[in-house]
Amino acid sequence: MARMSDLPPGWQLRRPTLADAPAILALVHASDIAAVGEPDFTLDEVHEELTGPHTDMSRDCWLAIDPAGAIAGWAYPRNPTGKARDFAEVYVHPENGLPAQRPLLRLLMDRMAERAAELGHRVYSVRAGAIPTETPYIEALTDAGFVFLKQHARMQMPLAGVAHEPPAPPAGVTVRPVRAADEDEMRRFHAVIEEAFQDSDHRALTYQAWREQVRAESDVRFDEWFAAEVDGVLAGVLQSGGSGGDETNAEGWVRSLAVLRPYRKRGLGEALLRHALARYARQGRTKAGLGVDLANPTDAASLYFKVGMTALYRANVYETTLDLG
What we know:
Blueprint: E1 12-14, H1 21-36, H2 43-51, H3 57-60, E2 62-65, E3 71-78, E4 85-92, H4 98-118, E5 123-130, H5 135-143, E6 147-158, E7 173-177, H6 183-196, H7 207-216, E8 226-230, E9 233-240, E10 251-259, H8 268-282, E11 287-293, H9 300-306, E12 310-323
Parallel strand pairs: 4-5, 10-11
Antiparallel strand pairs: 1-2, 2-3, 3-4, 5-12, 6-11, 6-12, 7-8, 8-9, 9-10
Helix pairs in contact: 4-5
């Protein structure tokens, strides 16, 4: 268990409140700029992390306060499903926050064991991410028992020159905006995401949990969601949402792109993506982005490179397993 004595003299630990969100965002932006060259987080996302499902600010989150009274570190978990996998996040200020990094990680990992028991899991996986250049944090994770698992990439492309009308989809394929007011269609839309990602490590959400997640987002535009049909079957979907860390909302963000296994390798994914890119451009967005698991068995990254996206950065994913016996 991390203690006050683990921190240098003059430092403090306390729980965050929503009033801290702007200062937390400033910390995260400083960390992002040092690690990847630009901010990649928004104020809405700070609020979402502090208030997400299975996250209690008064028990699960910590702030490290430096001797000048500034927030220099933030630690929190993320497990929206309540299933047997959590994610540990520790941000520290690149200039003065390093003394708080290991104490915050120890606090969070001690809490992970309690969370596992509270959620009813005897075996509990915990993951964490680090940019490959974040050597002190990688060393801290390694010393805490984490091992390298895989990489994710943050993809992006400019929309200058992207036509406002997408190319025609392959023969026999219809791509159209989702019918967001149709409850049956929204249930099918969600079901496609869950079924398509069964061969990945996607964390499944019930339909109700997914709808609540969508409702919690502040900038959902259903005219940027698309459905692909083949012979009347909803075979692929694209869900937009969020901003990829762009406070100006100039980035169209692909949250999920899913095609059912029997309909893969037929151009549905590319057709959906090109419809979204055209819509983003028409809406006046200047760029498009997404995150991709580079270990995805469908090799989704190859499609994103094909349409002109490049990797802004890659992040390592580490994992450890808690066995409560």
